[in-house]
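Q: Got a minute? One more chain.
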Amino acid sequence: MEPLEDDEKCPRCGYIPNTANPVSYLAPGTVLADRYVVGRLLRYNGEGAEYIGYDTGTSSKVTIREYMPDTLCSRKEGSLLSVRANCVAQYKAFMSEFVELNKTLAKMRTLSHINPPIDMFGENNTGYVVFKYIEGINLGKYLKENAGELTWEEVRDSFPPIFTTLSLVHNAGLIHRGISPDNIIVGRDGNMKLIGFCIADARTANTELASEIYRGYAAPEQYSSSNWQGTWTDVYGVSALLYRILTGTAPMDAMDRVANDALPEPRALNSSIPPNVSKVIMNGMALSGDLRIQTVTEFVTQLFEEPEFNKKKQVTQTVSIPKQKKSTEKSKKKKTSKGKVFWLVLIASALSMMVLLSILIMSLDDNSSNVLVGVTTTTKLLTELPLDTSDTDSEEVTDPDVTEAPRDTSSGMSAQPTLAVIESGGENGTGETSSVSIKNGGTVYIMNDLTGKTYDMIKNTSVNDNLVIIPDYVYTDEYERGMIFSQSIEKGTAYEKGQECILSISMGPGKAIVPEYTGLSRKDYFDLLNSKGIKYEEKSYETEDVLNGYVAWIGMEPGDEINIEEGEVLEVFIALNNRTETTTVSTTIVTIPTEPRETAWITTEPIIFTTTEFVPPDMDPAPFTDDIFEPDVTIRGDY
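A: Always. Here it is, folded:
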């Protein structure tokens, strides 16, 4: 934004003066706080609008963020915002959150990889935040100019400052929720800045604000206002961002993954990605927030240091079968100890067995031809988190007797040895034996219980490495969507590596209730339908009665039952017209007091923010008195 003569086209961006913004937003040329000239609209979401601006005080470009939740307020004429009569409480609550968010960011202006506010003030019955204008392009455009992707070496050299900055932001109590290529700016000097901070409800579906969800980068918990969000939410975004950067491919949307998680590992798309990096990215994109890497610090540690706890854990216990000499005696039953001493006892037992075998072999005569073909084991499985090991310490396991193999008289050798594995259960510690024929020196795998877990939970474990998993998606009312409720190889059964295992996975109920659509945009309603697994068909509908891009009507009545299992599809008609604002304007205005810390009230006469400069009493004025940025941060008016 530079000074131009009347009607002169900008030689840089091609902007023509007097080109109007959409009528709901501030007109170009509007002056705010007697200092900032508003330019064209850059972007907007459920929280508000962002404009390019010009600071007449410093003769420099700025960006101006206006708090304007369009589901709660409107602007019919001029610059003043009018709040709907039944939305005053929400409007004030979200404004308070908007102000506190930017106050916190202002205190972090020493961080060089964010763009903190340099001014805040109240006007037009709303609040404004001013930022320095960053010369550069967003990461999405930068990738397009660099073959669509970056190498791991380039990421390793350039992204640590962003990771560190995000960790510090988390320490200050803020969650971004919008990490994506759109919200990282690559400056002309090559340095990156994280932008686009926003209040929580604007980045969460099914709230009172129009949601801004970055598909492919948003965590599953952002698709429902009832789910917990935290630092792990941004870990998902960072992981998805690296997935895009390193593979050149945008990751699957989280809700699509919930229905059918077919997201390939990064290394499957780009073999030059280090195995550890590929695995950490997938761990950071776990659909379950509880199973995901929890903090950016932990994520970076695993990403760069390949710690022990990130290496692959074995979900099943494997038993090697050594080549055995002849024996005619059976081993005595022994009882293993529980918990942490399990391995010590197992090792001691193995050593004792070796000694015993040596004695037995030396004592046998030449006519002995029986072969020891069973190896006893106590198989309470060592599982990989998050698989359930709750009953590992609560049951006793006993070693089975060593069994004899049927003798092959034609060759004078024993038949193919069989490994007998017994898992104890019940009050008496008895269990059923399952056997599998394997070669001498081979390995046996014992199946764990996968029911009650999700497919995503086991995809990156050794179960997926050792078996050919065949998912069978079934509609059912009995189990939560995405949960495994049946497996073709039963728990405790021995299996061979590469064997097929069919997992029955719940798709949720076969029928669903059609949700209400009134007042919802196309995007929000489709998000709602996706969360319920309802298939839909989008159609356009010309009408002036509904805002453009919002749902005009649907092929069924809200509250009706739709049969998902039988493939029933809901027709959704989206309004198509030139309307870009609501026609209902309330005369009720949110009044903001001029004195700090007092309760706002409602009146039919608008009382506008004062522009008296002040520093709120709960803020330390010291951070705003140095010369790191010009102009210094000032807080105008009270919210």
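A: The chain has four domains: 31-133+592-636, 136-310, 318-506, 511-576.
Q: Perfect, thanks.
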